[in-house]
Amino acid sequence: MILDSATPHGRCVLIVLAMMLSALSGCTGLQQTSPGRSEFIVVAASVPPDRQAVFAPVFVLPDAGRPYNRIGKVVAQITTNGEEITIDPDQPVVYVGRFPFSTDKDTYTNLVYRVHFQKIPWSLVPFHLGAGSNVGLLVVVTLSGNGVPLLVTTVNTCGCYVAIIPTKSLPPENYPRGWNTQRQSVYGEALPGILPAYSGNDALLVRVRPGVHRVMDVRVIPRRRLKEKETVQARTLPLNSLRHLPLAQGTTTSMYYDTWPLRGHVKGAIKPLESLLLSLVSLDFYVGMDKEYGDTTVSGNPFYTSLRPWNRHASDMNNFAGFLRFWGWRL
Questions:
Q1: Cα distance between residue 282 and residue 272, in whole Å
Q2: What is the C-alpha separation between 157 and 117, in angstroms, rounded?
Q3: What angle do CA 94, 96, 97 make, to 5 degrees?
Q4: Distance in angstroms (rounded) separating the CA atoms of residues 331 and 78
């Protein structure tokens, strides 16, 4: 989710936010990763292998000894406090979906990969603005009509920290004007400006920053460099299975709230600090709360990626063609 700093209003808002965050935390820098910590390399698998599994990202998870740094299965249960949604870090799962879309130029297919973590823990130093439970991450691989990866989009499931990275298979005339093919900065994270062309014989590595679960690196390597003994296999389940989580006595429930005002948001994923600090800027009290992605016909909840209220629908990733236009891409 982006707050545009190109206007005087945007700059003023960013300055005020920075002052508030500094006063609360005394430190707004990103936490560092230590080379000696345990690390999981999670590979999605399906039987038999299909194109969605072949292009599934490989998630590199530093400091995986802490359960909240591992991706897990979304679990529903009935407790003494009622229905509860949690993430089981001992059962890694990648939720996958397939969504075609068209522009004036061509027809494309998005392969969507969604993963969830137990939480972003509360912390003052470093300051975790997004502290809360059941948080998630999306990786979207956009394929051409003949199945070649053209774009890789990463975004947290709150709509925050969106990054769009072209591959060399996408002609440069489709890039935003003035695109830097070397690096792009996404709120302090330095990500590639372009990725090499790749196929199913390669692996898309997505490295996730521990604690805050932001994407801190994306790269492509030959798949043969992945050693089976060094990887953890994750199940793949359909994205729409998150609407039908099993409960006791053969019943099911959705991961998402189905009534106003929380319709389309992940159950239990409210972010108190983001609501406190960003709700006025965004005109959304539930700003920062993780959301459903892929189908808003039921919830009507936009997966917006810009904090500006007037950009709420223009930046909605559910309308992927419009989302690309909003961020300057010319597919």
A1: 15
A2: 11
A3: 165
A4: 46
Residues whose CB falls within 8 Å of the CB of residue 40, separated by 6 or more in sequence, listed in order: 59, 60, 61, 64, 70, 92, 232
Coil vs helix vs strand at 69: helix
No. of H helices and E strands in the chain?
Answer: 4, 18
CA angle (247 as vertex; 244, 252 as ends), nearest 5:
30
What is the token pair recorded at 121?
């823990």
**Residue from 285, 252, 258, 230 nearest 41 by CA:** 230
pTM of the model: 0.89
Distance CA 203, CA 201 (A): 7
Closest CA to 74 of 83, 63, 62: 83
Residue 23, C-beta contacts closer than 8 angstroms, at least 6 positions apart: none
What confidence tens digit (pLDDT) does each residue in 274-291 have?
A: 989 998 889 999 999 999
pLDDT for 16 equals: 41
Alpha-carbon distance of 171 to 150, in angstroms, equals: 9
Around Cβ 16, how many Cβ atoms within 10 Å?
Answer: 12
Per-position DSSP letters for 294-312, written without gaps between them: S--TTT------BSSGGGT
| pLDDT for residue 49 | 59
For residue 323, give the 3-state DSSP assignment. Answer: helix
Among the listed residues 39, 37, 329, 38, the one whose alpha carbon sits nearest the alpha carbon of residue 184: 329
Q: Are 85 and 35 in contact (CB under 8 A)?
A: no
